[in-house]
Structures are given as C-alpha cells and as structure tokens.
Amino acid sequence: MLFAATMQLLLLLNIATPAQAQSPIQKFDDRVMIDLMEHRTPEKTGFFRFMTNTCNYGNLGIPAGLFIGGVLGHDQAMRQNSLYVASSTLISFGFTTLIKQIVKRPRPFVQNIQIVPVYRAGGYSFPSGHTSSTISTATALSIAYPKWYVIAPSFLWAGTVSYSRMYLGVHYPTDVTAGAVLGAGSAVSMSFLRK
C-alpha cells in the first residue's frame, strides 16, 4: 500500500520520464534548487550541515532513549513505543532504499550542472532518505505521545533536516516531498505496534 502510494506520487510528479522534454515539475525543482544555491551564506550552510548530520543520531537515539527510559522506569508502554518508533523508521528506510534502486533518479548536481552542491552525496536522489527517516521518527513519536511538547520539537527537527537536503543541493523538492509521504505513511502503517 505504502509502496504503491509512493510510486503513484512518482508518476504524478513525472520524474521517471527521460529529460528530453522537461516536465513543469522538473523545471520547478531546478528553479528552487538554483534559488537556494544563490542564497547560501556560510552561517546557514554550517547550520544546515549540522542539522543534516543529526539524522542518524535522532533516528537511533530516540527509540534507544525510549527503550532505556522504559527499562529504568519499569514502563512497558515506553519499551513498546521504542519498538514502534524503531520499526517505523526501519520500514521507511527499507522502502526508500528499494524505491531509489527502482527509480534511479540522479542527484540534482548530476542532472543539472548549474546546481552546485555544498557536498557531493552518493547514490540516487528519489526519495530523500533523510526526510523519510526523520519524518517517520517524528510521526511515530507524535502518534505514541500526542502532546504539543513532543510534536512541535519532533517536526521542527524533521522539517529542518528535510529542508537541509535541498539547501545543501543534494535533493530536489519532489525528493523531499516523496520522502515525507513515505516517512509519515510508514509511521501510520506501523501504529498497531504502539502502546
């Protein structure tokens, strides 16, 4: 279901077609990337590099923290929610990897030489793995603990990491959009695991 929805988004965005005649979506993607590139500053670049590097720390640290808190506090619900958050992120990672191998969309700086990245990421572009995993973690955490003081910082973190992927020149807006759909869908689809 989740895989089918992401593939439908791919077809809707018209990404899988050859670049002979650029789609309006591809033109939009290119314009956004070039605009972001032209407005970089050393301060913003440093901040967004830092944020992009928090991805794995958050994705691993949040469920680990829940698990440790659940063990130390003898809280079975917290331990169960750690499994839910970790599973959601793992499912998101698996689908992201699979879709990247099917679509094989080149990174923005490979597809358009006018786009200069802050650093050259490897692999394929669609969908954004940083986005899918952080949105999955934030969504699962917010479903497990639906309080404003959990939801707001979770999505602020995930949204900033997602934006950083475009700012740094390694993902198109459509890559980030698809990653967000995939991440949120993974968390919702695994919500039967939450306590």
UniProtKB/TrEMBL annotation:
GO MF annotations in UniProt: hydrolase activity
Entry's SUPFAM superfamilies?
A: Acid phosphatase/Vanadium-dependent haloperoxidase
Task: Report the subcellular localization.
Answer: Cell membrane
Q: Sorted alphabetically, which Pfam families does this protein's record hold?
A: PAP2 (PF01569)
Residues of the signal peptide: 1-21
What is the membrane topology here? Multi-pass membrane protein
Tell me which InterPro entries the record gives. PAP2/HPO, PAP2/HPO_sf
Protein name in the entry: Undecaprenyl-diphosphatase
What organism does the record attribute this protein to?
A: Mucilaginibacter yixingensis
